[in-house]
Structures are given as C-alpha cells and as structure tokens.
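Homework help thread (please don't just give me the answer)

Our assignment gives two proteins as sequence + structure token strings and asks us to describe the second one. The first is just a warm-up. Here they are:
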Amino acid sequence: MRRPRLSHLDARDRPAMVDVGGKDVTQRTAEAEAHIRLPPAVARALRASGHRTAKGPVFDTAILAGVMAAKRTHELIPFCHPLALDDCQIEIAQRGAGAIVVRCRVAVHHRTGVEMEALTGAAVAALTIYDMCKALSHDIEIGGLKLMAKAGGRRTFKRRRERRAA
C-alpha cells in the first residue's frame, strides 16, 4: 500500500512549489466559509446601527477586505501561485442572534485551483468584522473556517451543508 505524499514536498521531502506547467487550463472554482459568533450585546448594537461602527460600514468593509485578500493570497501563503482571479464574491449573512456567516466564492481559468484564495477571502472578511466590532467586545469568536466546494481540477469536492436549527 502506497503512502500518500504531500504535494508541496519534493523527492527529498523538502518544501517545494508544485509545478503546474503541464496541467490543462480549466475553469476552477472554490467556495469557503467562516462563522462569527457575536455576544448578544454586540449583535444588538450592530443591528441597531445598520451594521455600522465608528470605523464605518462593517459588512461592506469586510467584503472589500475579503476580495483584496483573495487577490493577494500568493503574497501570504508561500507556495500559492499568483492568480489573476476572474471573479471573487463575498456574502455576509446574519444567522439568528449573534451568528454571522461569511462566504467567499472564487473563480479562475488556470492550471491550479483557488481553494486557498477562497479560504483566505473568507478568513480576512471575518477578521475585518472582528476588527471593526472589537471596541464593543473582545468576546467575538471566529471559527468554522472550511472549504465548502471546489471544482475544475482532478477532483471535485462538495461539503454537505449543516442544517440549522429552527
């Protein structure tokens, strides 16, 4: 039985960028999400203010930050290839009292996937919400960062969405 190898290690188990030069250019997409849990007082204050703080419009700023981060993922993650993204969409939705879901969808025509760009976009959008709300409380929690789907490469992946309690 052959042991699976990590893709970013060379034959001598040293770190190496994956050579994607021989791969076909295809449409590649990925979607990631992050969850934010706000303390009840912060959720109420944010809702009452129309999602604004002294720093400005929270969700709009987080969307801009998430897109910027997705576009610059290769500058943050050492072995990510620089990609000229075709599309990046950030959605932010409140889910009940104090729960926020950030979703990032990314698309590109390239030889490599965009999972890291989607994950980075979702994470930075969530961190931006934290930054803009931290004056209200440091009890804000960010978690549940995960890849939800990817398509266009050798493997397609789709995570089943968790059902929300009514």
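The one we have to describe:
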Amino acid sequence: MKIPVRKTGKKAGAPPGTIMHLGEHKTYRVKITRVNYDENNYSEKEDISVDELFTPHPGFNVEWVNFDGIHDVEMVERIGSHYGINMLVLEDIVNSSQRPKFEDYDDYVYIVLRMLKYDEAKNETESEQVSIILNHDKVLTFQEKESDDFESIRERIRKKKGKLHRSGPDFLCYSIIDFIIDNYFIVLEKIGDRIDILEEEVLGDTEEQTIQKLHSLKRDTLAIRKSLWPIRDILGFMLKPDNTIITDSTRLFLRDAYDHTVEAIETVEVYRDFISGLLDINLSRMSNRMNEIVKVLTLISTIFIPLTFIAGVYGMNFRVMPELEWRFGYYSIMVLMLLIAVMMLFYFRKKRWF
C-alpha cells in the first residue's frame, strides 16, 4: 500500500478553493445512491442523476446520499452549490490524498477518513479516501472508488436492525466511521498473519524475497499508522459537547469508537516494533554469516602464510642451498609444512576460533 502523499503539483499557483481532481484518472459515470428513512419508513434509489437528487423527498427524518467517485469536478461543484458547501471543502473532496481530519462549519461538519481493505488475491492492502458531510438531517458520503462498501449499513437500515433506523443522521455518521474502523482490525489481522509467516522465514533460511516482504509490510504499517492517528483526533473533536449536530446519545457510541481506535493504534505500534525487530534480526544474521565466512577465510589465509614463506624461500634461484642436493630434502619440507598446518589448526581449535 502506498503511503498517501498530498498532491499539489498540478495546482501550484492556483487560488484557494480551486476545484481540481487530484488522484487516479477515472472516466466512469459517478454512481449516486440516495437513502431516506425514519423509524417506520425506508426509501432507496440507486444510480440516480444529479437533477433527480435535487428533487425534494419530504417525509423522512434522515437522508443519506453516497457518491461513488470524486473525479467529476462539475458534478461536485453542483452538489456544493445546491447544499451550500464551502469551496475549500469541495477542493478537499476531489483531492484523493487528503490527511484524515475534522472541520466544523457551524451548520455542518466535514470529515475525511481513509478506508482500508485487504485484497486477498493480490495479498496487499488497498486505501481509499472517504469524505463525510454531516448536518442536522443529512449525510453526504464521497467515496474515491466505485464499490458497495456501505451495503451492510444500508442492509441494517432496511431490516431495522439495532438503533440505526430510529436515530438521526449523527448516528448514521457514527455507523460509517465505526465500519471504517472495523475494517482496520480486519487489515491488521491479515498483517498479523503475514508477520507470523515472515517470522518463520527470518528465523529459517532468509532469502532476498523475505527482506522485500518485510519492507513492504513495514510500508503498509506506516501507511495504516498515518491514517489511524488522525482518526483519534477526529473522534476527540466529535466528542466535544459544544458540537450541536451530534447528540449526547451518539457520543456514547463515539466513545466506544474512540476506544477501538486507540486499540488499533496500539496494535499498529506493536506490529511496527515487531517488524523493525525482524529486520534487525535479519541484519544481525546476515552480519554473523558474513563474519563466519570472513573468519574461515582468515584462518585459511593464516595457515598458508608460513607455508607460502617456506615455498618462497625454496623458490629462490640461489646456487648454494645444500639441502637442495639432499636426497630427502623434498619430503622433509613437505612434512614440515604439514606439521606447521596441523599445529596451527590444533592451536586455533584450542582457542575455539572455529
């Protein structure tokens, strides 16, 4: 997973509030889903047009509009104009590399989160930006990619499960945030499994691919950490009593989401330290292995130093070297060299150098 980095190169020199899509280029039509509900009624329309969205739909307490796609700048501008959304917020919505944050605009709040999903086929973590606008009767969600991630929440409203269908838009906002946080635990569980596998590989015969996997895992952990820490601050702002859009009953559930976020952060920190430890262990093993190789080569070189000296002496072309004419000279030198090598090996063994 890539670590989200704010992309501003294309907007250099543009005035604040300039709406320009920054992110992966997409051409598909933005899918708009509108859900209206209260304690007794439910209405849902999929893939509607902007004009149909602007048609009044009275008789319901809560309206939830989800946009799959943020690349249609013209559509986002129309949405902002219709709902009275600040241009700076619209600018942030179409920038897919926003840092998670919370902004209070009196009559509505703006929340940016990063939703993580684990791709089993690719064995990697995917990241998606989700923008949420909450006011007294409405929730607008902008997803970066086309998906059915929030289908489980809509299913709870349809079947009137739990408190969601009886509550206001603030509880719906909490449910979306809680769903995103729960996805972090799913991803962290998968990362924990990958760490267990890599731990066995590191403690076994380490391969170059294992190092690459560890670095990839460390990068994923850093990206999750960068996305998680701001969520704690966001929930901290939402828990403040001076925010009139969020009711006291919903704050009770937000405290639970806050606790889950802290738990996820602690898990990420543990994983990060564990991965760093595995990298250190691997580095130490590589260093020890290299030291063993150097030690063996050094011992071999040390043994051959005196042997090379003797061979060098008798390789000189002096005319007067009496032992050259001796019948047993060659055999004596061979035995001497063998004795020297054996004595040195015995000495090294006694010193426990090998």
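TA reply:
I won't write it for you, but here's a hint about the kind of observation we're looking for: The chain has eight helices and seven strands.
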